[in-house]
Each structure stands twice: as C-alpha cells, then as structure tokens.
C-alpha cells in the first residue's frame, strides 16, 4: 500500500490517475451514447437499415482524414491535443438531441467523430508513455478496463433512467457531452513522459510516417477496419430492428459486456506482455469468426445476443495488440503519427465497407454483411501469423536500442 501511494506521488503516478479519470469519463460518454443512438436513429429520426450504413460511413470520414490533422497539429503537445479532441466530442454528443432527420444529425456525427478518433489514437500513446515496453500491455489493459468501468456505470444509469422515466434521448446526449468535457479537463495537464520517466519538454513528433517496416501494423488496421465497421454498423441494428429489443434490454446486454471487460481488462493486458501479440491476436480472430458466423447463419435472438457479447468482449484485443506490436518495432518519435496512419488506413475500409454493405441491404438479408466480415477475420488471422516483433524492428529502432544500451553501459 505504501509503495502504491509513493508511486502515485510520482509524475508517472499522477499521469496514470489523470488517464484513468479521463478514460472513465469518456467511457461513460461513449457507452451511454452507443446505448441509445440506435434506438434514437430508428424511433426518432426514422432511419432504416441502409441509412445506418450510410451514417456509419459519414462517421468514419474523420478517421480517414486523421493523418492530415496529425500533420497539421504535430507541434501541439499530445495532452493538449487530446483535450481539444475531447472538447469536440463533448460538443458533438451534446448536440445530437437537437436533430430531426438524417441530414440534421450528420454534422454532430462528424464533429463527435473527429473528437473520438483523435482520442482513440492518443489515449494509447499517452498510456504507453507511462511505462516501459515490457509492461505496455498491462497499462493498456488497465486503460481498457477503466474505459469499460465508466461504460458500465453509464449503462446502469441509462437503463434505470429510461425504465423509470428519468432520462430521455435529449437529456442522455447532454449528459454524454458533460462527461466528455470532464475528460478534457482531466487530461490537459498530463505530464510529458517516456518509458515512465518525466521529460523537460515534449518530444518532437514526425509529421507523417508511412514505412514498409510497419507494414504488418498497417495490414492489421486495414483489415480490422472492414470487419469492425460492419459489426458496429449492423450489430446493434439487428438486435433493435430484427429482434425488436428495447433500450433497457440493450442496456442489459451492454452491461454484461462491460462487466466482463472491467473484470478481465488488466488480466488480458498482462497476457499480451506474457505471450505476445501473435498468439493473442490469432485467438481473437478465431473468436471474431465464430461470433460473426453466428450472426450471419443462425436466426435466433439468444444466439445473436451471445454472439454480440462474445464479439464485444474480445474487440479491445485488436487495438491493444496492434499498439503494443508497434511500440516494439517503432522509434519513439514515430509511435503517435504511426497510430494515426494506422487509423487512417483502418478507415479506408471503414468508410467504403459500410457504404457498400448498407447499399446491398436493399437487395439481400442482413446476414450477408456479417459473412463478408467473416472473410476479413480470416485474412487478419493469416496476417497475424506473420508477426515477429523482435525480428521486425525497424533499422531506426535497432539504432535507438543500441544507443540506449550504450548509454546504460556507461
């Protein structure tokens, strides 16, 4: 206990507390919004299946453009850039409730997406700066667990609020905006860290990074983008539209997922540190394949709910694994812009795939997009087999390690 108190008094410990507060607040905001948005789109805005695909594609456009924002703001310290992103997220979420149609909600979808996608890349870059490479998985696992803890509280609040009539769609979106704002305030003073050591000033980041040495990281993101956006576009929509599940029932399902992730997040992170990215990501993609095939081949509400829980339980593994792999092969100055490049490539698929699958829903059953997602999982499984962090370090990273080793020897 004394050792923990002493560590919390260090710059790394204070940064960890800031990260946990921000992560919990953003987890609350994102989960509450996710909980009600499918019902809001269907019940209030009157959107149908194809429009769910189209709005997802619109939402993912900022992710596709993220690399250009990274180039523009590369001199801004990561904590301040992250706080600014969460401010956009707060405004976007807060204004969802003033919409009345597909096109009136689109600007707030784009604005909140800009904030969300910027936060998505930088939360892991900031988290990994708090510790050494061999403990990065543990830190990211704790971040994931705290995100889900905030989300779990959000689900309980939304479920009770809608059941007893304390909350409606507009008030829920306003609450989401407030929580994102709290996250922005909490992270703005995050310390400048590297390998858990405080540095006098932020390290200069590269404007743009696209290296062949990081090709497997890029492939993981590109294929994951196609798979996950199909599921995010239509997973909840199937439960709401096809199986007619209400907001409280959706809340109960999401609470189950979040509770599992809260209880196991730190443990899963340690598994990455212990076993490495290749076996963990291979297991994850087998799980994706089973869950997506269940959605696509079995028309049963119990099976669909079980598949949703399985998919969402293992979903964080993909980004944790890709991020820790990058940390092991890339130089420090290229981690943040490389995460941005990975997200941009992810959204090459994330923009195109929901548009295509949303369009084909006009002619086929909802099962077809999930079978397409199965193909992405199979391809990702084979890419994962090629991962070898120790043997795939970039020449610059090898040089950086040699310099660090020489300095330690002195």
Description of the structure:
The two termini are 34 Å apart. It is globular and about 65 Å long. The chain has a two-stranded antiparallel sheet with strand order 1-2. The protein is mostly helical and 410 residues long. It has helices at 2-8, 11-44, 49-64, 66-72, 78-94, 102-128, 136-164, 169-187, 215-242, 247-275, 277-297, 301-329, 335-360, 367-384, 395-409, and strands at residues 193-194, 197-198. Helix 10 runs antiparallel to helix 11 (277-297). The chain has 15 helices and two strands. The chain has a single domain (2-188, 208-401), classed as Growth Hormone, Chain: A (Up-down Bundle), CATH 1.20.1250.
Task: Give the helix/strand layout.
Layout: H1 2-8, H2 11-44, H3 49-64, H4 66-72, H5 78-94, H6 102-128, H7 136-164, H8 169-187, E1 193-194, E2 197-198, H9 215-242, H10 247-275, H11 277-297, H12 301-329, H13 335-360, H14 367-384, H15 395-409
Antiparallel strand pairs: 1-2
Helix pairs in contact: 2-6, 2-7, 2-8, 2-10, 3-6, 3-9, 3-13, 4-13, 5-6, 5-8, 6-7, 6-13, 7-10, 7-12, 9-12, 9-13, 9-14, 10-11, 10-12, 11-12, 11-14
Structural key phrases:
410 residues; Growth Hormone, Chain: A; two-stranded antiparallel sheet; 2 strands
For the termini, the CA-CA separation is: 34 Å
Spatial sequence of strands, sheet with the most strands: 1-2
Fill in the CATH topology.
Growth Hormone, Chain: A
Determine the structural class based on helices, strands and strand pairing.
Answer: mainly alpha
Mean pLDDT: 82
Helix proportion: over 70%
- Name of the top-level CATH class: Mainly Alpha
The CATH H-level homologous superfamily:
MFS general substrate transporter like domains
Provide the gyration radius in Å.
Answer: 21 Å
* SS summary, helix count: 15
Unreliable residue runs = none
- Shape, please? globular
* Largest sheet features: 2 strands, antiparallel
SS strand fraction: under 5%
Helix/strand order, N-terminal first: HHHHHHHHEEHHHHHHH
Count of distinct strands:
2
Total separate domains: 1
């Amino acid at each position: 206990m004394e050792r923990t108190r002493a560590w919390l008094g260090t710059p790394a410990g204070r940064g960890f507390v800031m990260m946990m507060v921000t992560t919990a607040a953003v987890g609350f905001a994102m989960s509450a919004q996710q909980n009600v948005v499918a019902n809001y789109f269907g019940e209030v805005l009157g959107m149908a299946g194809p429009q769910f695909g189209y709005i997802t594609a619109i939402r993912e456009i900022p992710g596709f453009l993220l690399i250009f924002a990274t180039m523009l703001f590369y001199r801004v310290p990561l904590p301040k850039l992250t706080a600014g992103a969460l401010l956009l997220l707060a405004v976007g979420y807060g204004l969802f409730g003033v919409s009345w149609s597909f096109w009136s909600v689109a600007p707030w979808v784009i604005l909140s997406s800009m904030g969300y996608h910027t936060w998505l890349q930088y939360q892991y870059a900031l988290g990994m700066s708090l510790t050494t490479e061999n403990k990065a998985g543990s830190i990211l696992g704790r971040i994931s667990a705290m995100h889900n803890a905030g989300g779990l509280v959000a689900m309980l609040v939304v479920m009770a609020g809608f059941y007893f009539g304390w909350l409606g769609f507009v008030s829920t979106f306003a609450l989401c905006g407030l929580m994102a704002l709290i996250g922005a305030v909490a992270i703005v003073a995050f310390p400048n860290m590297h390998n858990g050591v405080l540095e006098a000033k932020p390290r200069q980041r590269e404007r743009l990074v696209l290296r062949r040495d990081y090709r497997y990281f890029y492939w993981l993101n590109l294929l994951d983008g196609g798979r996950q956006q199909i599921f995010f576009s239509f997973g909840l929509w199937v439960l709401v539209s096809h199986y007619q599940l209400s907001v409280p029932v959706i809340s109960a399902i999401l609470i189950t997922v979040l509770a599992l992730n809260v209880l196991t997040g730190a443990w899963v992170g340690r598994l990455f540190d212990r076993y490495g990215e290749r076996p963990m990501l291979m297991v994850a993609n087998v799980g994706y394949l089973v869950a997506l095939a269940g959605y696509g081949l079995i028309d049963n509400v119990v099976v669909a709910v079980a598949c949703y829980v399985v998919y969402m339980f293992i979903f964080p593994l993909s980004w944790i694994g890709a991020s820790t792999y990058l940390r092991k092969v890339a130089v420090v100055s290229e981690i943040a812009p490389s995460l941005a490049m990975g997200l941009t490539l992810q959204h090459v698929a994330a923009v195109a795939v929901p548009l295509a699958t949303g369009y084909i829903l006009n002619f086929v059953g909802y099962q077809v997009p999930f079978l397409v997602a199965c193909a992405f999982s199979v391809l990702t499984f084979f890419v994962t087999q090629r991962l070898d962090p120790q043997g795939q370090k970039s020449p610059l990273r090898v040089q950086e390690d040699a310099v660090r080793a020489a300095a330690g020897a002195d």
